[in-house]
Amino acid sequence: xxxxxxxxxxxxxxxxxxxxxxxxxxxNEKRGGHIPGARSLPLKWASYMDWIEIVLSxxxxxxxxxxxxxxxxxxxxxxxELFLNTGYLDIAxxxxxxxxxxxxENHQMKHLERFSQLVYPEWLNMLMQGQIPPFYKGxxxxxxHAHYRNFSDYEEGHIPGAxxxxxxxxxxxxxxxxxxxxxxxxALLSKGITKDSTVVLYGRFSFPDNSDSFPGSSAGHLxxxxxAAIMMYAGVKDVKILNGxxxxxxxxxxxxxxxxxxxxxxxxxxSDIPRNTHLFIDTPxxxxxxxxxxxxxxxxxxxNEWIGEVSGYNYIEKKGRIKGAVFGNCGTDAYHMENYRNxxxxxxxxxxxxxxxxxxxxxPDKKLAFYCGTGWRGSEAFMNAYLMGWKNVAIYDGGxxxxxxxxxxxxxxGMSK
Length: 417
What we know:
The protein is α/β, with parallel strands linked by helices. The chain has three domains: 2-111, Rhodanese-like domain (Oxidized Rhodanese, domain 1), CATH 3.40.250.10; 116-274, 3-Layer(aba) Sandwich (Oxidized Rhodanese, domain 1), CATH 3.40.250.10; 278-412, Rhodanese-like domain (Oxidized Rhodanese, domain 1, 3-Layer(aba) Sandwich), CATH 3.40.250.10. It has helices at 18-22, 51-57, 73-85, 97-101, 121-128, 151-156, 181-190, 220-234, 245-251, 283-291, 303-306, 350-359, 376-388, 399-404; strands at residues 10-14, 39-40, 65-69, 91-93, 118-119, 141-147, 163-166, 198-203, 238-242, 280-281, 295-299, 321-322, 326-327, 367-371, 393-396, 411-412. The strands form four sheets. Strands 5-9-8-6-7 form a five-stranded parallel sheet. Strands 10-15-14-11-13 form a five-stranded parallel sheet. It is globular and about 60 Å long. The relative contact order is 0.11.
C-alpha cells in the first residue's frame, strides 16, 4: 500500500464517513485520520444519482490505479463495483487499514487539525445519553438549533433537548455585525452559556431562494456556523459544530421533536467579553491587511457578486468588490456554500479546500480575514481555516455591506482578479 502514496498515476480512496476521514476514531481503531493523499468518498454517497460527477470533481480518473479502503471489505467492495460499472478498470481493495495501517507507527496518518470541534451525530447522541464521548471535558453542555427570525424552523422539528437560537440574538440587524459585548453577554447568559460551557450548534438547510424577502431564514446551518464564530470571539472555550447540521442527524436515523426546550439562564459568564478579539476585525483592520505584503482579505462571495453583476442581497444596492481583495468563491449566491461543502452539507474534504485556496494565493503563512456581504459566508470560510489549524485567521465583520456604505472606500468591478 505504501508504494501508492503520493503517486500521480494512483488514487487512494477512503470510503468511511467523512468524520472518520477527518480524524474521529469511529470504530475504536488505534489511530484516527486517513492515509496521506487519500480522497474522501464515503459509502453513503454511493446512492447519490450524481455519484460519478462527484468522483470526477475530485479528479479521480479512469486512467489511474484506484485503491479503495474502508472499515470493512464489504464497504470497499461496494464502491469498487461502482467504479467498475462506470468504466474504471484498474481497481484494488486494501482490507488491512484498521488492523495494519492504523496500528503501525511506521505508517503515516493525516487528519483535520481541529477535528474535535466538528462533531458527528453519534458523538452528540452519546453526549445526550449521559455518556462521555471523546474530547468532551465539560461539566455541562448546551445544544443550539440556530435559525434566522424563523422560530417555525425550530418548531418544524429539532434535535431533542436543543434550544432555539435566533442569529439576531448575536448580530445586529442594523449592521449585521456582531453585537456589543454587553449584548453578547446578555444573550449568552439567557441561554445558560458561560465561558466553560460546551456548546454544540447546528441548523437546517432548506434551499434558500434569493427572491424571498428573508432568504437567510432557510440557511440555518450557515447561521449556526456564524453563531459559533461569534461565541468563540466572545470567549466560550468549547464551541463545536455538528458536521452537516440537522441533515446529518436525520441521515443517521435519529429522531427529532417539536417539543420546546427552554434554556436555564446563567448568572455569570466567567470572564470579560470579548476574550478572543483577534478572531474579528473591522474596516480599519481590513484596510491594513489590504495594504500589507503579508496579509489578505478574502472575498467569500459568488462570481456574480465578485464581478459586480449583482450585490447579492435585496437590501444592498451597491455592486462590486473591495479593491485589493482575493477571490474565495463561495458558490452560487449569498446563501449557498457549495464550494465549501459536500452534497450532504458536511464540510468538504479539507485538502481540497486548501488546494483551491493555494491556487488563489490564500495560504496559511499570511494574516487572513474572510468576508462576504454581511458575515455568514465569511464565518464559514474562517471556520474551515480555523479547523485546519491555520493560526492567523479572522473574519472581517463589516464585509461588503459596511465597506460599500462609505463612498470613500475603493471598489472594483469586472473580470480582473
